Amino acid sequence: MKTFLNKFSKTVLSIGAVLLSTTGTAWADNTETAAAERCLPVHTIRRTKVVDNQNILFYTYTRKVYINHLPHTCTDLTMGDTFKYATSQSQLCNVDTITVLHETGSGWIPGASCGLGMFEPTTDPEKTTTKQ
């Protein structure tokens, strides 16, 4: 009986350790997601860089860089494009849209409008340009 209890205890401890390590991974993933911002104050945005048709980097005056993974592909948006945004608030948020601008000889014409995603902080913008 004592041998059975020892084996049973070791099995329960092993299962508990596996569950704890799995839960720890989930917490780490949630912490990373929780770090994403819904909005950025407009006055903190220093510049932007269009990476591709679904990723835009936002550089701030506070020396932070955020990647915005658009929830849907913006077919009119390509690397280096210019875009505009309009907001009635002092913040640019994940519910706002951008409008791609195309340069013509006499100015700019609007292209597609696309919704923004969450602003995810990044320390290495070149490595975080694709969402996994």
* Low-pLDDT segments, ≥5 res: 1-34
Q: What is the arithmetic mean of pLDDT? A: 78
Query: How many structural domains in the coordinates?
Result: 2
Principal-axes geometry comes out as globular
Number of strands: 9
Share of helical residues: 25-40%
Spell out the helices and strands N to C.
Answer: HEEEEEEEEE
Helical/strand content category:
alpha+beta
Determine Rg (CA atoms, Å). Answer: 22 Å
Helix count from the secondary structure assignment: 1
Q: How far is the N terminus from the C terminus?
A: 50 Å
Lateral strand order in the biggest sheet? 2-3-4-9
Query: What profile does the largest beta sheet have?
Result: 4 strands, antiparallel
Fraction in beta strands? 35-45%
Keyphrases for this structure?
alpha+beta, 9 strands, 25% helix, disordered N terminus, four-stranded antiparallel beta sheet, globular, 132 residues, three-stranded antiparallel beta sheet
